[in-house]
Specification:
Strand order of the largest sheet: 1-2
Oligomer: single chain
Largest sheet: 2 strands, antiparallel
CATH class of the largest domain: Alpha Beta
CATH topology of the largest domain: Homing Intron 3 (I-Ppo) Encoded Endonuclease, Chain A
Number of strands: 6
Length: 191
């Protein structure tokens, strides 16, 4: 177990934290944190009483630290209840990154782009298809969805292709080759 700094369990932080918790009415025993970020996890601003500085942390991680001490490096705090805003210490457990990923996949909580293949190299045919569809007026989002690629990846392909095309247009025209020795007159005489 990690050694715990003096200021982690300050009564002031704990009182402020407890004031932001409400009981879940669904009957599963969750303690719902009332300040929630865009990703659904509770956010708590803890105050370091020795320096007066503040730091925003996940509410479930703060709750776990209050009960069990510091979280070891490389470890995650998982919810047994699968309620992101829950900070009931009995619903939380430690896991490493591999276990966290396996739990996420088992419960079908991975990103909507996780099944796409961003690391599989594109063939030139796929690249040409993406660019031609974009030039025909389709949106990058629609193309990405159809070809099973990440939106950002497809957008990058389109931008790179358009920049190369623009560079080719801006290149100076190569000079016309001069006539062979003897000049153009020998061609005219033959005619």
């Amino acid at each position: 177990m990690c050694k715990e700094p003096r200021n982690k369990r300050t009564p002031r932080n704990r009182q402020r934290f407890n004031a932001l918790i409400s009981a879940d009415t669904s009957g599963n025993g969750c303690h719902i944190f009332n300040r929630v970020g865009a990703n659904g996890y509770g956010l708590f601003t803890k105050i370091d009483e020795t320096t007066g500085t503040t730091k925003t942390v996940s509410s479930h991680r703060f709750a776990y630290e209050q009960k069990h001490g510091l979280i070891p490096p490389g470890m995650s705090v998982l919810h047994k209840c699968d309620v992101r805003a829950c900070c009931n210490e009995r619903h939380l457990r430690l896991a490493d990154a591999a276990e966290n990923s396996a739990d996420m996949k088992r419960k079908n909580r991975q990103s909507r782009f996780a099944d796409r293949k961003p690391r599989v190299p594109l063939t030139e045919t796929e690249r040409a298809t993406i660019v031609s569809r974009y030039k025909a007026g389709e949106t990058v989002y629609r193309i990405a969805k159809d070809v099973g690629r990440n939106y950002v990846h497809v957008r990058s392909i389109v931008r790179t292709s358009l920049k190369k095309e623009q560079a080719r247009i801006a290149e100076p025209v190569p000079p016309i080759r001069s006539a062979p020795a003897g000049g153009a007159a020998q061609y005219l005489e033959a005619a």
